[in-house]
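Methods — Computational structure assignment.
A single polypeptide chain was analysed. Its primary sequence is given first, followed by the predicted tertiary structure written as structure tokens.
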Amino acid sequence: MLREKCHIKKDDKVKIITGKDKGKIGKVMKIDRKKGRLLVENINMMKKHSKPNSQNRQGGIIETEAPIPMSNTILMCNKCVAPVRIKMQRLEDGKKVRVCKKCNEFIDN
């Protein structure tokens, strides 16, 4: 599934709207646009069993984040602290920015 348009960027806060972590809020760490998935901090944790190797690394069970589909998340506004839809707005200098539809506040810094 190729998704070229994505309104979520790295370091955005998102809320999970479906799945086992429904209702949780986390920060986006990585985005895979080709697969339509994102990696969110402390969301969708999975356990991975690893063997010890020669470079001072212990074996055991390691907990890491697994990617989740973009369609299962919604962007959070920093000002109104709510899950929101966004609109794109062009500034006078020609730069495009994301704007919250509820409070009309810029989401981009």
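Note: The domain at 1-76 is CATH 2.30.30.30 (SH3 type barrels.).
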